[in-house]
Amino acid sequence: xxxxxxxxxxxxxxxxxxxxxxxxxxxxxxxxxxxxxxxxxxxxxxxxxxxxxxxxxxxxxxxxxxxxxxxxxxxxxxxxxxxxxxxxxxxxxxxxxxxxxxxxxxxxxxxxxxxxxxxxxxxxxxxxxxxxxx
Length: 134
Hints:
Elements: H1 3-22, H2 24-58, H3 61-68, H4 73-86, H5 91-103, H6 108-119, H7 126-133
Helix pairs in contact: 1-2, 2-5, 4-6, 5-6
């Protein structure tokens, strides 16, 4: 484990002990509530993993590296931004997906362009956004 992970563990355990000393009843109530929230999010987390696996199955890593790799950063960035502005993926799926793209060889600049345009108002969501603002 790196120093940041150890630091987060230390801070979390320290604050948990402080909370238990201050009020055991409230701490256990909060832990019970967070357990329920995590249980309700479990399906979404599994869906994210499944969706990323599905996307990476249909788009082989060699294609991702060829299109979003470092051969031509300008072309890669523009094409990633165009694809990101057309697609409609929720942000909680987009972040791990982009991380997977970088993991299989995509350059960081096109990946960030894809992520930025993916989470902004794009071609697919523009009519809905225009209707709700009027």
